[in-house]
Amino acid sequence: MTESTLTKAPTGAVGAKGHAGCAGRCAPRLAREVAVGVGLGVLLVFLILWSMTIGAYDLTVAQAAQTILAQFGLAEPLENTKIETVLLVIRLPRILLTAIVGAALAASGAAYQGLFKNPMVAPDILGVSSGAGAGAALAILLGFGSAGVQLTAFLFGLGAVLVVMAIARAFGKSGNSLVIMILAGTVISALFSAVTSMAKYVADTDDKLPQITYWLMGSFARAGAMKNVAIMGAVLLVAGGLMMAMRWRINVMAFGEEEARTMGVNVKATRNVLILCSTMLTSVAVCLCGTIGWVGLIIPHIMRLATGPNYKSLIPLSMLAGACFMVVVDDLARTLVSAELPVGVLTSLIGAPLFIYMLVRGRKEWL
User: How far is residue 67's CA from residue 55's CA, in Å, rounded to a whole number?
Assistant: First the structure.
């Protein structure tokens, strides 16, 4: 068997468990995946348009659509320029950012769950959220500006994962490297959580402590700017694009590392690239918006129950579902009470009971 044959083998192998080679058996699942994808896409467009109408300044869907179309010369601009300001400067950047962040966190969760073969794994398992939180807390404590806080959070989050990977590479053997990586992630998370607690302990209770606490709870209130949309979108395009291109490898690695190597997959390189891509998505999302939990855990789990564990469709469907979920949660955060609620609090209040409900149902459609 030639090397080129081995390289092409995974596509056929995955297809045997996916779509190709089992047209009769897999046609219903393929139709379900397409239907779910189209439904989520339509829902996302509707939610974005509907979200533009929500807020202190009442608007209609028609006004929002006309304002957006006018930017492309497809409709006449509204006479009321205040509507254009509210939509294009305040609401639209925030809504787009929430959708992109939701897609990024969900994609990271799906990739981690496939990589570690465990549906209970979340994107912050390797310490990225704890590291970013500690970096932001220290930056706020030192009086850094918004850009400094975001940059420090990103560097600490990325550094935490690099340390975890270095520990796993130094002390892990081929058979237990993933276990060592998870244990190292737990230790590094605890270490950075202690740094965050110390920063909160010494922070000024009238100024710095409220800023640290609010940032750690997660919010889009101060992140909704087009430059942040561009940053998050570029990261999702690059890192998410790599994950999309490599998603068939996750299917192959589900058979085990030895089988994956036999099929021509470089397991170590694939694992490192997926971890770095997921870390980039999660760390940038955290550094822009603070800590937002549960999205990367429950959304891929729901999609897996709905369409199965085929990662060729699971990752893009998780992106769409994560975007929809995040937009809805942010709408609730903006409208439930007069003062805006932290998004991270709402994702926990919604995500934890929902995940418990799925566990109680006992459906374990996993690899």
Answer: 17
pLDDT of residue 24: 53
pLDDT digits 0-9 by tens, 93-146: 999 999 999 999 999 999 988 888 777 778 878 888 899 889 989 999 998 887
Altogether, the residues listed in the chain come to a count of 367
What per-residue confidence (pLDDT) applies to 207? 84
Query: Structural domains in the chain?
Result: 3-122+218-361 (1.10.3470.10)
- Summarize pLDDT for 22-42 with one digit per residue, the tens: 545 667 878 888 899 999 999
Cα–chain center distance at 215: 18
- What are the backbone dihedrals phi and psi of residue 243, each rounded to the nearest 5 degrees, phi first? -65, -40
- The three-state DSSP-derived secondary structure of the chain is CCHHHHHHHHHHHHHHHCCCCCHHHHHHHHHHHHHHHHHHHHHHHHHHHHHCCCCCCCCCHHHHHHHHHHHCCCCCCCCCHHHHHHHHHHHHHHHHHHHHHHHHHHHHHHHHHHHCCCCCCCHHHHCHHHHHHHHHHHHHHCCCCHHHHHHHHHHHHHHHHHHHHHHHHHHCCCCCHHHHHHHHHHHHHHHHHHHHHHHHHHCCCCCHHHHHHHHHHCCCCCCCCHHHHHHHHHHHHHHHHHHHHCHHHHHHHCCCHHHHHHCCCCHHHHHHHHHHHHHHHHHHHHHHHCCCCCHHHHHHHHHHHHHCCCHHHHHHHHHHHHHHHHHHHHHHHHHCCCCCCCHHHHHHHHHHHHHHHHHHHCCCCCC
pLDDT < 70 positions in the chain: 1-26, 172-176, 224, 361-367
- What is the distance, to the nearest Å, from the Cα of residue 95 to the centroid of all Cα atoms in its chain? 15
